[in-house]
Amino acid sequence: MVVDPALSYGAHFVLRVRGESMDPEMKEGDLALVRRSASAEDGQVVIAHVDEDEATVKLFRRKGKKVWLEASNPKFETISGRPFKVVGRVVGLVRQFR
């Protein structure tokens, strides 16, 4: 295994994906490699704390001054009008084939 030099510095962490809100891009059990960051650009996949006690993985969306979190799966609602804090950006994904 070779580690990409871009991942060998800074603060990274790994989270196991639970749920189906990012399906089909991310599946239950996938490992998301996350780079710590308090900011994101429109369209990036982020880890965010919602209502201070819940963490979620969603697409970060911005239009003008309005920001919201959007699921890839249309069965899930957009998170808008609730406070959230971006804690990292997903920079990689590991999926185990069974």
Short description:
0% of the residues lie in helices and 44% in strands. It has strands at 12-16, 31-36, 45-50, 54-63, 66-70, 84-94.
Distance between the termini: 20 Å
Gyration radius over CA: 14 Å
Helix content: under 10%
Main sheet strand line-up: 1-2-6-3-4-5
Strand content: 35-45%
- Total DSSP helices: 0
Can you describe what's shown?
This protein is an all-beta fold and 98 residues long. It has strands at residues 12-16, 31-36, 45-50, 54-63, 66-70, 84-94. It has a 6-stranded antiparallel sheet, with no helix packed on it. The chain is globular and about 40 Å long. 20% of the residues are buried.
List the helices and strands and how they pair.
Layout: E1 12-16, E2 31-36, E3 45-50, E4 54-63, E5 66-70, E6 84-94
Antiparallel strand pairs: 1-2, 2-6, 3-4, 3-6, 4-5
Features:
mainly beta, single chain, 0% helix
